[in-house]
Amino acid sequence: MKALIVGSKGQLGRGLAATAPAGTEIAAHDVDTLDITDRGAVEALVAAERPELILNAAAYTAVDKAESEEDLAFAINATAVGHLAGAARLAGARLVHVSTDFVFDGVSGVPYAPDAAPAPASAYGRTKLAGERLAGESALIVRTAWVYAPTGGNFVRTMLRLMGERPEVRVVADQIGTPTYAPGLAAALWTLAAKGMTGLHHYTDAGAASWYDFAVAIQEEALAAGVLHNAVPVIPIASADFPTPATRPHYSVLDKTSTFAALGGPAPHWRENLRVMMAAIKAEG
């Protein structure tokens, strides 16, 4: 099989390349080789590469900045998805697209099923929801949340840096979701695609946590792995104490029941995968 990975230099794109099934021929492209907002460029590249599968790991993910750059976020998160979907149809390829828990407003208090009514409360969420709709019914669309990896910009790496620089860190404790290890998400995407699945699905690691819970675990696992050498106080705060331009969902745990059944079992608990990442960081020095 030949697969085209778009957004190949991001943390999920790297995970997709690393977990590709044996025998898969990968064509990897990022912003330096493909402008996904240019329909002509997308169609020309897909026609030239002739992939059977297109995996879209590209996204505008600056949640707060999207409030003032919604047009740009829409171009990348929505319009470009339509271009990829159209090019896939022309080439007879299948599209795998990744979306987000931010399509929900977070007021439910119970895990969101794939068929729950979306109600995004931010520009980022609105643009990602539009992208889902433009991906089309024949695409595999997987919503996820709180993605992190040993490389790239993410909450884990930010916490590790701050814990090494500051006498204490203050972290929001009233936003609940689920951390998700990018390589695990990538492997799940390959499996779901191999099963020929289409439509909307949810995938994160198992369990749930607040950002505060996640930060506490990051420090504990980093100390145990020798990635950090000194503990600092982690102070829980309310969202109101840390105002941001974008409204974030207070509860955005996704219901993965049907996805885990399709995969043959649940994902590892988020803390287990956090431990795996710390070991990877330690091994890399």
| Spatial order of the strands forming the largest sheet | 2-1-3-4-5-10
Count of extended strands: 12
Secondary structure category: alpha/beta
Strand content: 15-25%
Low-confidence stretches: none
Shape: globular
What can you tell me about this protein's structure?
The chain is of the alpha/beta class and 285 residues long. The chain has one domain (2-284): 3-Layer(aba) Sandwich (Rossmann fold). It is 40% helix and 16% strand. The protein has helices at residues 11-18, 39-49, 70-91, 123-135, 155-165, 182-194, 211-225, 257-263, 270-284, and strands spanning 2-6, 25-29, 53-56, 94-100, 140-144, 147-148, 169-172, 176-177, 180-181, 199-202, 209-210, 234-237. The strands form four sheets. It has a six-stranded parallel β-sheet with strand order 2-1-3-4-5-10, with helices on both faces. A two-stranded parallel sheet has the order 6-9. Helix 1 crosses helix 6 and helix 5 packs across helix 7. The two termini are 35 Å apart. The model has no long low-confidence stretch (mean pLDDT 97).
